[in-house]
Amino acid sequence: MKPRFLTGLLSLLMPAMVLAGEYDLTVDRVKIDTGDFVKEGIGYNGASPGPVMRFKEGETVRINVTNNLDEMTSIHWHGLILPFNQDGVPGISFPGIKPGETFTYEFPIQQAGTYWFHSHSGFQEPDGAYGAIVIEPEGREPFRYDREYVVQLTDKHPHSGDRIMRNLKMMPDYYNREQQTVGEFFSDVSENGLMNTVRDRMAWGDMRMMKADVEDVHGFTGLINGKGPDQNWTGLFEPGERIRLRFINSSAMTYFDIRIPGLDMTVVQADGNNVQPVSVDEFRIGVAETYDVIVRPKDEQAYTIFAESMGRSGYARATLAPEKGMEAAVPQLREPARLTMADMGGMPGMDHGSMAGMDHGGMDMGSSEDMSGMDHSSMEGMDHSNMDSMDHSNMEGMDHGSMTMGKEDKSDPFYAKGSGLMPKAANGGKFLSYADLKAQDPLYEDREPTREIELRLTGNMERYTWSINGVKYEDADPIRLKYGERVRFKFVNETMMTHPMHLHGMWSILDVGAGQWNPIKHTINVNPGTTVYMETEVDEPGQWAFHCHLSYHAAAGMFRKVIVEGGPDSTQAKTDAIAEDGGEV
Amino acid sequence: MSCIRSLVAVSLIASVGFSTAVTAQEMISDTTARKQPLTTWGVQFEEFEYRYSDDDEELGVWNADAFYGTDDFKVRLLTTGEYEIEEQAYETLENQLVGQIPISKFFDAKAGVRFDTPEGPDRTYAVLGVAGLAPQWFEVDANLYVSDEGETSAELDAEYELLLTNYWILAATLDATVAFSEDREIGVGKGLVSTEAGLRLRYDLVDRAFSPYVGVVHEQKYGDTADFAETGGGSTEDWFAVIGARIAF
Amino acid sequence: MNASKLFVAGMALSMSATAFAAGAHDGGHGHGATSGEPGKASEASRTITVEMYDNYYEPEEISVKPGETVRFVVENKGNLVHEFSVGTPDMHEAHQEEMMMMVEHGVIQGGKLNHDMMNMDMGNGHSMKHDDPNSVLLEPGQSKEVVWKFSDKGNIEFACNVPGHYQAGMYGEVNFE
């Protein structure tokens, strides 16, 4: 008791000194060896990925970032709540860090959990400029584990980010090596008949859309903690221990489906925020998301952490083992994903017959409603294979999480019904859905949003242009929010790609239909042909970036500046008067 | 591209946000590369090949284009040449410089000039064209030409790629030229002038940057144009075996 | 309706089966596979208060003597429904499947219990009441008692088998002195 009192006294006297952690990072040119190729890239403190930054909730951190590159750089602390001028986005938070310069970030740590940091300049992040952040909570964790590992994924490509962007602009299918071939035509003919296959190809050809357009960039090597599949990063354990794995997807473009054959994974945290634990066999991690899971290997054997890309064009692999050098079988990649017409459901002006009027993302199923009114008898013996004919619009008021469907029906309400991207666990078991995520300890009171802002996610694959509401960042006015309001964002995905939308500086309360238990995240996946809602308590003044976290989509224009007008004190209120966007240059 | 980006990045250094005397937290304006239209470029040799005809004619042929610009405006240089190896003369040499703007989701309009400087008389044309992706994945490029002699003609290019696998690709091309008036001096008769059809089987050896191929090309002249060619001792129909590479960088 | 009743009845049966196993034997997985038996309050040598939070117990470890009867006062100080169940790890694992069904049937709904569902008579005297002597299920703010006799040494844990909670670490060790 005494030391704590003393610390409290000291912190009153010298707040900056006692609780301030000082950290140094250098931004360097590094070599990245994936096992498949060696590539010049960018890293921190001489390596990519950079170090794991370990902070403690309640401390104020000072981070000295020295730019050893011959170009501008920046570091964005992904998911951290901090003053906007510490957020590290050039042109929005600050001008950037010049070559040779040292910039000192200083901000209080007001949260705990797993996060990451990366450059927000050019394509430095895909080129290797990223690292992990682990924040220890002030109190105890609401779960137990004996050891922990950061499992940071990326999709390292032999081409530089600049070159990938240019190639995509020149030929949007430059990297896609899973396109439909003559062979697939004939196998489809034998499966579905000639006329059906021809009709199918004609329908897609008419739209000039590719079913194979799941991942824009193939040809990468999946890395875990900087190690390629052959280099096999290995985390050690003693049988019977609980291990916390902090998964971070630092990829430029790639979603991963992650499983550890032989182990259940209990998801306890998403995007740094604790969620009510849910045990799964497999989960999909969107670009920029984090998931913390607890696993408990009981046997004296190795387990493979297998991360297949969503489009199955590549994978990352690592191992959990009682001893270095032990390995388990590495599964084969599953068949490449193919989009379906359901994924095109968001495209305006398209007639999909039965799909009209469906609001997939609507999902407004109320909070944990009392189920007593439900007639369970009618659910027994329900033929789940016929679920396609179910009218989801009549499901208002139902709590999905507490229904049998959650387990037996493999259809995830966050995908368009019949979507080709619908995830399935390799072992036929439970695949995590956004609908399973419930806040462990809600950060905000649930309240009515003050207004709704619709953001249509738009683009044109053939031109490789990506935009919001049809307007690219270069032509866009900022989104203006008022301090103190609660805004409901409606994302309508009108493209055939999945977009991980990331709002800086303020939490994204994902509407999974759980009311006050809705989880808070920093990155929200919006799957093709769906509408997803999130709400934001506008509680941080300043200006912030808001964008698709796929590197080449953001660079192509799927990006916005958000200006929060007003602030907690009256001097801040004047900022809106001078907040101008430098759009006209 | 990287040099462009760093140029813009340098311009960022010059930019200092609004100085806001009142507030502690300064709101800056975004003058980074991200806020500028994305400028990009590319160079592509659709055809770069050696042709050997059924009457032992040997040709070196290229068909290439280079562009520089943004989504809203690109400058494009197109160049086509057929060099007769034995006679050391250009049978065809066309260079076009056009500006290109998007006009619909899948199509661009082009306008510019074309200089033909083969062996024989030269021509300069004004060019107006449309290029893009037609339904069912046909790449089309249609152009209208008005020469400095006042003659008008039109050309349609179409290409379709069949993916035998994701690396073995069979490309079919068809190129047809129609003249609305005769230009006797360069051997062009009124009506359908000529067609060139090609079938090339390529293999993407290095990404999509270097793809060697083999194929066949059929060239045919029609009507008055064919008559002019015959009179001049030339052929009206040729079959070629071709070997070459598609190159992009 | 019939199918439903059968199903739930089956579940209730399987739960009683577990309760039985809990009171007696559980199949002999390794040594010390017995968890003890229901105790009499009058025989309890002491009272141990176990507080439930989201999702952990305080304390997370207790010590008992072989043959000792303990009166547990369990208080749910969290915002979610939690269970306090005494058993071997294998028993907990088996019980978790039943608890999963309770969640799927809306008996356990995050922060509350659906008592109508729990008490629903299945037509054969069984229900989803969750009334085994080795465990209690508590809504936030509730407090209940379990009296348990730790007959023999064994690998025994007290655990919350609400889906995910045990896996996340909501369990405590019972050490034998």
UniProtKB/TrEMBL annotation, chain A:
Residues 34-138, 221-317, 447-565 form the Plastocyanin-like domain. It holds the Pfam family Cu-oxidase_3. Residues 1-20 form the signal peptide. The keyword Cell membrane does not apply. Keywords: Copper, Metal-binding, Oxidoreductase, Signal. PROSITE patterns: MULTICOPPER_OXIDASE1, MULTICOPPER_OXIDASE2. One of its GO terms (molecular function) is oxidoreductase activity. This is Copper resistance system multicopper oxidase. SUPFAM superfamilies: Cupredoxins. The keyword Signal applies. GO terms for cellular component: periplasmic space.
Automatic annotation (TrEMBL), chain B:
Pfam families: CopB. GO terms for biological process: intracellular copper ion homeostasis. GO terms for cellular component: cell outer membrane. It comes from the Bacteria. Residues 1-24 form the signal peptide. One of its GO terms (molecular function) is copper ion binding. Keywords: Signal. This is Copper resistance protein B.
UniProtKB/TrEMBL annotation, chain C:
Gene3D superfamilies: Cupredoxins - blue copper proteins. GO terms for molecular function: metal ion binding. Residues 1-21 form the signal peptide. Keywords: Copper, Metal-binding, Signal. InterPro entries: Cu-binding_ET, Cupredoxin, EfeO_Cupredoxin. It comes from the Bacteria. SUPFAM superfamilies: Cupredoxins (SSF49503). Residues 25-44 are annotated as: Disordered. The keyword Ion transport does not apply. Residues 40-88 form the EfeO-type cupredoxin-like domain. The keyword Metal-binding applies. This is Copper-binding protein. It comes from Marinobacter salinexigens.
